[in-house]
């Protein structure tokens, strides 16, 4: 059972939180809205705080600063959901890999598992404590109508970084390693999944209302590997998390899943599913069960461009999902060059 301190919404609380209500299967008009990466570099207040802290990891592991970043877009825009400011690579960092964010480059993990046995990693779960402290701070700061979202990376996506030590375009090294030694790769996925469950439970106990699983690189896999490396480990997480935190909704986001999305929904069983910008909303609406809440799927570049392209895209998405539970969001993270005025226009359109 979830401890009393956990933010698991009662029925009355759900009605006060539009986003949480949709995750529980209600349809709201207008739909609730939040944006992936809504706390980020497009905001001047974020850029100022990050410069003060000197880097991403220092910012993400400072509970006071990370809570401030989480709240910044809520304060400015009044989104219906706040998402924890953190990173999907906190789990491998807690598993014992070193994590760095160099200037102008993506994250790096060391030692990479192409060169080292995962058994050599010494778990450092205490590294997650600042994240839980951030959650507690944010939970105390949010208004009653705002849903607080925690998150973690899904095992396949996290594994691509752990094996190769950094991101890549086609995940060649990770896929080759998995084909060469499937038993070892399965053990790695299980280890990631099990710690991810603990991590999400810790977030729920600290105060989040719901969680999202980011499988950012799900689109790089063939159907059989998608089943084994995406669906199976995500199902492992969802089942174990629900057993420990009943009533806390889970959003699954398998970016790039395409035609495999219905299999993901049936196999993983999330409470809601995120749609990336490459999916035709008309197809997704027809292909998915009518009672499954969907989230998405505005192209971040349409938001950055603004104007008629933004107006048209928002109208099409809203019209397509008018009869099902829908959370308005982007198909991926907001771009750092997105004008503030375009975000304001988006909210005006969605809430009209």
Describe the structure.
The protein has 352 residues and is an alpha/beta fold. It has a single domain (11-350), classed as TIM Barrel (Alpha-Beta Barrel), CATH 3.20.20.210. 49% of the residues lie in helices and 12% in strands. The protein is built from 16 helices and 9 strands. It has helices at residues 11-16, 18-23, 44-53, 56-60, 63-77, 90-95, 129-141, 155-164, 172-180, 182-206, 223-244, 261-268, 281-287, 300-305, 307-320, 340-350, and strands at 81-83, 98-101, 107-110, 147-153, 210-215, 250-254, 272-274, 294-298, 326-330. The strands form 2 sheets. A 7-stranded parallel beta sheet has the order 1-4-5-6-7-8-9. It has a two-stranded antiparallel ribbon with strand order 2-3. α11 (223-244) links the parallel β5 and β6 (250-254). α9 (172-180) crosses α10 (182-206). The chain is globular and about 55 Å long. Residues 1-14 have low confidence and may be disordered.
**Got a strand count?**
9
Largest sheet, in brief, is: 7 strands, parallel
Strand content bin: 5-15%
**CATH structural architecture:** Alpha-Beta Barrel
Number of domains: 1
The DSSP helix count reads: 16
Distance between the termini: 40 Å
Low-confidence stretches: 1-14
Q: What strand order characterises the main sheet?
A: 1-4-5-6-7-8-9
Order of helices and strands: HHHHHEHEEHEHHHEHEHEHEHHEH
């Amino acid at each position: 059972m979830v401890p009393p301190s956990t933010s698991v919404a009662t029925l009355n609380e759900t009605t006060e939180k539009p986003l949480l209500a949709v995750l529980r299967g209600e349809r709201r008009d207008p739909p609730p809205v939040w944006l992936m990466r809504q706390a980020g570099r497009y905001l001047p207040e974020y850029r100022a705080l990050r410069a003060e802290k000197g880097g991403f990891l220092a910012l993400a592991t400072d509970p006071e600063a990370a809570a401030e970043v989480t709240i910044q877009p809520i304060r400015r825009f009044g989104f219906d959901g706040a998402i924890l400011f953190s990173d999907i690579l906190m789990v491998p960092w807690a598993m014992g890999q070193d994590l760095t964010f160099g200037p102008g480059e993506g994250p790096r993990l060391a030692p990479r598992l192409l060169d080292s046995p995962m058994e050599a990693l010494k778990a450092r779960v205490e590294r997650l404590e600042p994240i839980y402290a951030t959650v507690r701070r944010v939970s105390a700061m949010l208004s009653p109508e705002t849903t607080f979202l925690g998150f973690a990376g899904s095992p396949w996506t996290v594994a691509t970084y752990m094996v190769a030590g950094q991101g890549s375009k086609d995940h060649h090294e990770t896929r080759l390693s998995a084909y060469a030694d499937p038993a070892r790769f399965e053990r790695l996925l299980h280890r990631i999944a099990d710690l991810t469950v603990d991590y999400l439970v810790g977030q729920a106990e600290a105060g989040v209302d719901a969680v999202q699983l980011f499988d950012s690189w799900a689109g790089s896999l063939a159907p059989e590997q998608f089943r084994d490396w995406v669906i199976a480990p995500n199902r492992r997480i969802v089942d174990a998390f629900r057993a420990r935190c009943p009533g806390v909704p889970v959003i699954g986001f398998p970016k790039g899943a395409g035609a495999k999305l219905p299999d993901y929904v049936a196999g993983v069983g999330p409470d809601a599913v995120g749609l990336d910008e490459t999916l035709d909303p008309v197809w997704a609406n027809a292909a998915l069960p009518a009672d499954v809440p969907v989230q998405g799927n505005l192209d971040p570049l349409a938001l950055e461009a603004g104007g008629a392209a933004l107006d048209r895209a928002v109208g099409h998405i809203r019209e397509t999902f008018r009869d099902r539970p829908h959370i308005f969001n982007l198909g991926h993270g907001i771009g750092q060059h997105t004008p503030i005025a375009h975000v304001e226009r988006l909210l005006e359109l969605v809430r009209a």
